[in-house]
């Protein structure tokens, strides 16, 4: 899957806004999930991506 420069920019902006929303109130997936769907990533892959545990670095 190759991405255009415009898609990469869209993903970057959505990632920044989703991260800010997540750090303030939670729910950054409300921004990132639809954006990733719009780019063309399959829904099952997105569900696994957003539900996977994350490792915290202290």
Describe the fold and architecture.
The chain is an all-alpha fold and 58 residues long. The chain has a domain at 1-15 and 25-47. It contains 3 helices and no strands. Helix 1 (5-24) runs antiparallel to helix 2 (29-39).
Write out key terms for the chains shown.
membrane, 58 residues, transmembrane
The biggest beta sheet reads:
none
The number of helices is 3
| Element-level helix/strand string | HHH
Secondary-structure class = mainly alpha
Total DSSP E strands? 0
Low-pLDDT segments, ≥5 res: none
Proportion in β-strands: under 5%
Distance between the termini: 34 Å
**Fraction of residues in helices?**
55-70%
Q: Tell me the Rg in angstroms.
A: 12 Å
Tell me, what's the shape? globular
Q: Could you tell me the mean pLDDT?
A: 85
Keywords: Membrane, Transmembrane, Transmembrane helix
Transmembrane segments: 28-46
Topology:
Blueprint: H1 5-24, H2 29-39, H3 43-51
Helix pairs in contact: 1-2
């Amino acid at each position: 899957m190759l991405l255009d420069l415009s898609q990469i920019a869209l993903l970057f902006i959505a990632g920044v806004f989703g991260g800010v929303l997540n750090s303030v109130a939670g729910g950054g997936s409300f921004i990132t999930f639809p954006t990733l769907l719009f780019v063309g990533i399959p829904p099952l892959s997105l569900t696994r991506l957003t539900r996977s545990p994350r490792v915290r670095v202290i």
